[in-house]
Amino acid sequence: LHYPITMAALDAGLHVLCEKPLAFSLQQAEMMLAKAESAGVKHMTYFTWRWVPHIRYLCQLVEEGYIGDCYDAHLSYVGSYAREGGYQWKWDRQHGLGVLGDLGSHMIDLGRLLVGEITQVGASLSVRVNKPDAEGRPYEAANDSASLTVRFANGATGTIFVSAAADLGDRGQEQRIVLYGDKGTLEAHADASTQTVRGLHNGESEFRTLPVPESILRGIDQTASLWRQQFARLFTEQSVGTRLFIDGIVDDRPVSPSFYEGMKVQAVIEAAFESDRSGCWAKVQAERDR
Q1: Residues 24, 3: contact at Cβ < 8 Å?
Q2: Are 159 and 173 in contact (CB under 8 A)?
Q3: Distance between CA 144 and CA 25 in Å, rounded?
Q4: pTM above 0.90, yes or no
């Protein structure tokens, strides 16, 4: 429903903040971006993980050259919420993109943010848990596990793994990012109660925990529940999340991540579906960049 709602809002001249994934298809995402730009309004795709403190610090370290040139990147984000087995629209391919669109869109966005543009994808999409319709009717099941091998424009390679069928007990969800470069390695980990960044730099033999500086934390307690408390606090902060979108409207300044970033992630998702169908590598192609 993102596409029809967004297009109607744009017809009304409204600014639009749209949840990820931006659309149901790359073609829809491209049309949403084109219309938003033509309307001259502010537009944002809600990639919330960009604003979590340890991810912001990870981005800062990469930008400062901590790992140098990235060789390989491994990103994973897993949860347990598909194990329940009941019908939800996101597991129905006529309505959703599965875990690839749900958790995968976040990790694709972070891969682009931390490493660069993704140019090729090799993907395997799976359905691990049977989730019947409430009335027992057949439907096309969407993936609840997705494994992607990716190639970046700068020569780096990587993997993106997402699953909603992992048994995690009381962890709920778990996210890991590992970046290997010519000058060092960075690791980031997050679950419901802890978020850490660790690094190895310039020939060091032991990994060090790299505390998130207060300039990024701004009073956020990293031991508090990530989803129930930290996210609620995050998106009222100046220049973060929803506040960033509102400030962009009020001050008439660019907003990021925009529909453009949403469209670029959609292009990777589409390539993953194509690769899974064909069993071959698929090029990431967006009309805007051809």
Answers
A1: yes
A2: no
A3: 18
A4: yes
DSSP 8-class letter at 280: S
59, 103 in Cβ contact below 8 A?
no
Residue 212 DSSP code: P
Token pair for residue 178?
Answer: 């590992």
pLDDT in tens, 111-129: 999 999 999 999 999 999 9
pLDDT in tens, 24-35: 999 999 999 999
Structural contact between residues 136 and 147, judged by C-beta atoms closer than 8 angstroms: no
Q: How many residues does the chain have?
A: 290
| H or E element that contains 190 | strand 184-191
Q: Are 77 and 148 in contact (CB under 8 A)?
A: no
Distance CA 234, CA 236 (A): 6
Q: Name, in order, each residue with C-beta under 8 angstroms of 42's C-beta and a sequence gap of 6 or more.
A: 15, 16, 245, 248, 249, 255
Backbone angles phi, psi at 44, to 5 degrees: -140, 140
Rounded to an integer, what distance in angstroms lies between the CA atom of residue 52 and that of residue 188?
12
Which residues neighbour 205 within 8 Å (Cβ) at sequence distance 6 or greater? none
Measured distance CA(182)–CA(235) in Å, rounded: 35
Placement of tokens 């980990």 in the chain: 189
Q: How far apart are CA 77 and CA 102, in angstroms?
A: 10
- Of the pLDDT bands very low, low, confident and very high (cuts 50, 70, 90), residue 239 is low
Write the DSSP assignment of 16-67 as a string of letters: EEEESS--SSHHHHHHHHHHHHHHT--EEEE-GGGGSHHHHHHHHHHHTTSS
Cβ burial, residue 279 (10 Å; 0-12/13-18/19+): exposed
DSSP per-residue letters across 70-108: EEEEEEEEEESTTTT----GGGBTTT--HHHHHTHHHHH
